[in-house]
Write a structure and sequence with these properties.
Elements: H1 2-6, E1 16-20, H2 26-34, E2 39-44, H3 47-60, E3 66-70, E4 83-89, H4 98-108, E5 109-128, H5 132-147, H6 158-164, E6 168-179, H7 184-200, H8 203-208, H9 214-226, E7 233-244
Parallel strand pairs: 1-2, 1-4, 2-3, 4-5
Antiparallel strand pairs: 5-7, 6-7
Length: about 250
């Protein structure tokens, strides 16, 4: 998954790179590894997540020099044009106004600098065996994210969002993941422990919101697990956008 998402992303030594919404540092670790010498500044609104990110980098890359900040994306403590590059991964999907976020980040980017944005799109899921119950379970997560102000289908919107926020030279690549029993590491690491685990985690909220019944939810989750078993296949697409702030 790291190769899929981070291929082509490397920043020159000495460049100043802002990662917004770094969470527990999963992507920060890859940025540090792919861009030795770059000055990484990682920001998250959650102090507990930042603590985990610091610990992760201290264990995996003890020599890495990362500058950590606890701050809100819409109130960042940086001056205009103070970064050469921006990296935003799995953040826009959670925001009620992702275009406003991209406008705020554009202020921080120097002329000629770039932004990389990576998001998924739950509408890209393909299952075998297909199951209406499994799709309904996935849709529960989509609806809950929408009720919280986010968009689980935002991957398909990256180009227009960046264009409307004033970025130039926009390119978007689809980064599909296809999983079957010949790729056991992805069956465990992605299908079961990432995607299905994410859907399972919203079960109580989906029931509380009246989006499903206990019986339908159990059937949907069981059918999702079926695609991770022998004879099952799973497909999901991420979208990776690169854009620039022209001089």
């Amino acid at each position: 998954m790291a190769a899929l998402l981070h291929e082509g992303t490397a920043y020159p030594a000495g460049s100043r790179v802002l990662e917004v919404g770094c969470g527990i540092g999963a992507q920060t670790a890859h940025l540090v590894a792919s861009s030795p010498g770059a000055r990484i500044v990682a920001v998250d609104v959650n102090e507990a997540s930042l603590g985990q990110a610091r610990a992760r980098l201290a264990a995996d890359s003890p020599d890495a020099e990362v500058e950590w900040h606890c701050a809100d994306l819409f109130d960042l403590p940086f001056s205009d044009a103070s970064f050469d590059h921006l990296f935003v991964c799995f953040v826009l999907e959670h925001l009620p106004d992702p275009q406003r976020a991209l406008l705020e980040l554009r202020r921080l980017l120097r002329p000629g600098g770039t932004v990389t944005a990576i998001e998924g799109d739950h509408g890209s899921v393909l299952l075998h065996p297909d199951s209406a119950h499994a799709r309904a379970a996935i849709d529960c997560q989509v609806q809950l994210q929408s009720l919280a102000g986010g968009d689980a289908h935002i991957g398909r919107r990256l180009q227009p969002l960046l264009a409307e926020a004033g970025y130039d030279g926009i390119t978007v690549q689809a980064r599909p993941v296809y999983v079957d029993q010949n790729r056991p590491e992805l069956v465990e690491g992605f299908t079961r422990n990432t995607f299905i685990a994410m859907i399972e985690s919203v079960g109580s909220d989906a029931l509380a919101a009246g989006l499903t019944t206990s019986a339908d939810w159990r059937r949907g989750v069981a059918d999702l697990h079926r695609v991770a078993e022998a004879g099952g296949t799973f497909h999901y697409t991420f979208f990776k956008a690169l854009a620039a702030k022209l001089p």
